[in-house]
Amino acid sequence: MHDVLTEVRGGVGFITLNRPKALNALSLSMIRALTAALLAWREDAGVAAVAVRGSSKDPAGGSNGLPFGAFCAGGDIRFFHQAALAGNPELEDFFTEEYALNHLIHTYPKPYVAFMDGIVMGGGMGISQGASLRLVTERTRMAMPETGIGLFPDVGGGYFLSRCPGRVGEYLALTGQVISGADAVAVGLADGLVASAALPALWDSLASGGIDSTAGLKARIASKFIANNDQPAWTSGLLDDVFSRESVAGILAALQADGSDWARDTAALLRKRSPLMLNVVLEQIRRARGMALADDLRMERDLVRHCFHLRPGVASETVEGVRALAVDKDHSPKWNPASIEDVTPAMVAPFFVSPWPAHAHPLRSLA
């Protein structure tokens, strides 16, 4: 069985991520299959739009008998760990091709609809945030949790998180906090909330034809949206004040000085993350706020190379983070340095020096 299923019905290209036991986490072969389908359909006059979803690991179709499962839990982090330790060149290919796919989706000339049901994290955000229409449900659990494995919010995370209102981008990037579908709409990471029970009929309705524009498609689907005008309690003035501080140490000090439950819980969460990568991520988000997408993706490609090679092998914060979470599962990463207060600007600066001249950058063709 293929990990990516594609078909064309009624002038719509349908993509189903079909690796449900891994929560549809992306492998290199899946990235290549997605890219091939989108490039072919881009040039196909018989395809007017594209829709993408994740499948369920329940053979009966998941809860409520639905065919929809986790949208995509991210990249295959066990592969990252194995490839980094083995010196497997496919690790480089994975990130170059994934980021090129992200750019393709953001710039796709035809309507692209992402059915973001269930878990939508990491790489799943990369194949959905550039969609013309981003649909979430009451089952959506969304995050960019990369700091938990000593990485950074990639796949264009710098670009789309930095464009959230206020300092929500810094908060989500640094903490990796999981948010609901309703919250995602409120902070601009989704366009509409629909009931999960409505997804099968909505998916099939796209094949009924009559898609002549992105606006027309949005109008058709918007009729299924659930009204949601509530602003999440955590997107408060306190969040903006705290996460506008100049440094991670300053953010932590502000949280500790506040003393509220939210501040205390947020400080405890940050203390679990890689101190070095928290500082890298804060710099990433703030640089990305003034960048075009292609430039952000090139910066992130530089960053990911450094994550695995500035400190190669087991010395890498990312290799150690994946080990603790997904390999040994001891949930006790040994970060270096161990304390936020011990990180210096000299440790962070090399991450933002490209290892390639501009003419040789692996993403030099993105515009």
Using the CA coordinates, give the radius of gyration. Answer: 20 Å
| Silhouette | globular
CATH class assignment: Alpha Beta
Number of domains: 1
Main features:
367 residues; alpha/beta; 2-enoyl-CoA Hydratase, Chain A, domain 1; 3-stranded mixed β-sheet; 43% helix; 10% strand; globular; HIBYL-CoA-H; 3-hydroxyisobutyryl-CoA hydrolase activity; Enoyl-CoA hydratase/isomerase family protein; ECH_dom
Describe, in short, the structure shown:
This protein has 367 residues and is α/β, with parallel strands linked by helices. It has helices at residues 28-42, 77-86, 90-106, 123-126, 157-162, 168-175, 181-186, 199-205, 214-222, 237-242, 248-258, 261-272, 275-288, 293-309, 317-327, 345-348; strands spanning 4-9, 12-17, 49-54, 112-116, 119-121, 133-136, 141-143, 179-180, 192-193.
Topology of helices and strands:
Elements: E1 4-9, E2 12-17, H1 28-42, E3 49-54, H2 77-86, H3 90-106, E4 112-116, E5 119-121, H4 123-126, E6 133-136, E7 141-143, H5 157-162, H6 168-175, E8 179-180, H7 181-186, E9 192-193, H8 199-205, H9 214-222, H10 237-242, H11 248-258, H12 261-272, H13 275-288, H14 293-309, H15 317-327, H16 345-348
Parallel strand pairs: 2-3, 3-4, 4-6, 5-7, 6-9
Antiparallel strand pairs: 1-2, 7-8
Helix pairs in contact: 1-3, 2-15, 3-14, 6-13, 11-12
